[in-house]
Write a structure and sequence with these properties.
The chain is α/β, with parallel strands linked by helices and about 350 residues long. It has 13 helices and eight strands. A hairpin with a 6-residue loop joins strand 2 and strand 3.
Amino acid sequence: MKITTIGLDIAKKFFQLHWVDMTTGEVHRKQLKREQMAEFFANCERSVIAMEACGSAHYWARKLSGLGHEVRLVAAQFVRPFVKSNKTDAADARAIWEASQRPEMKFVAVKTESQQSVLTLHRLREQMVKFRTMQTNQLRGLLYEFGVVLPVGRAKGMPAALEALGELEDSLPAMMIDALRQQMTRIQKLSDDIADIEKKLTLWKKEERSAVKIMEIPGVGILTATAAVATMGDSGAFKNGREFAAFLGLVPKQSGTGGRVRLQGISKRGNVYLRTLLIHGARARINLQKQRDPWIEQLLARRPFNTVVVALANKMARTIWALMAHDREYQKNYVISIA
């Protein structure tokens, strides 16, 4: 008996289904309310349920998998080409159903609650860092209007700002001095909250063996390791390390016609956050290592610095995949053996 594939367009209140009866060829379309979902799929025969990898998709994937169904998550950009004519819930469900059955379709690995929780911490931290940077820059600009030039860097700039406010206390209105001090208090509170999230990530890392192994790679710290493990989900979702690097947008963008293919800059597709962490880690590794890897030295001799940074980030991404996929420990001078 061939298993039925169901295309499911998820939303907050109303869910649209699309499937084809394998015996009669009849096309079925059905709309369900949120509270009807669990009952419908609990009474449904084991099926392949395809969904777009969007908001709450991992939650529903775990829930439907628990009911005995096989769930496939399709990236949104791979569904869009199959939407015909006007975009409606029914058209989206049909497009998901059709896209999921393509032989070369790549599916998104379903994340566990633990992995999603870690990514939530990363998102909260990322937003806090942005807020802190914005408020720090605003404080610099406001003090500059009164002739105060703060040193570069937050570590030196904040003590200098506090000292400058003390010097300006006698010449400027008290209401402005108080407002700027409140701004500094908010910046310090954000720093404390960021540090608290980093402590939580450190505790999670100790429980996650894969993250501990990944941190042995030079240039990979607590943020990169935890984000990589949580983002990858199941390493089996990627055929090899290059596919994982391509998922992060760390491979050249291709453009060509008539048999001629041109390689351009990196594609910048996929996860921007993890790609940024890998590039920052690669840059720090090149700048801070006393004794550089010969491979890096050879690249620096013939390529621009930023190109070498991205190449190293690509290599780090592939190493991360290899350690997780093959359950190995990091070896500094590892050489691939070809049988």
